[in-house]
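Let us practice reading a record.
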Amino acid sequence: GLPEGSRGIFVGGGGSVRVSRLIGASRGNPGQALALLRHLVELDLIRYAGSAWVLPAELPEHELPKDLADAQRARIARLPATALRLARSLALHRGALSIRGCLQLVPGVPEETVHASLSTLTGSEFIVRADDGYRFAQESSRALFVGGLADAALRPLMRALASALMITHERVFS
């Protein structure tokens, strides 16, 4: 967790309860604490004004995620439709997929839109650029994109992934 003296850096006076809840939700993991803070910044509940981070006097209970997965689900829900579809198809594949393969994951979508979606997903830190393409940054994030999807929703994603793999590995399938 954060040392007692460092709490004032983030919230100033009277905010120890909020920081304690944040530390509790992150289970003391600094990376998860940063992800939860990012969620609150994206919701504009925490803002940088002048030369200081500003928090509201009260954070509504429903705005605070219970844990990192809850914050990530909220971030996923805010993704544009094409980026979400691209990420869900990519989430079905363990490992990296080339740009050529990524273009196949969302058939009928213009190439520049796919590139913009990849930028959105890398900017959101859900996926990372690897030497051989794009892959999920965290296994836990990958699972959140497809967890709970019905078979009917998974089938077109699987077909798109199969097509992408066949095109990117055509020497294996020829």
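A brief commentary: The beta strands are 47-49, 52-54, 127-130, 133-136.
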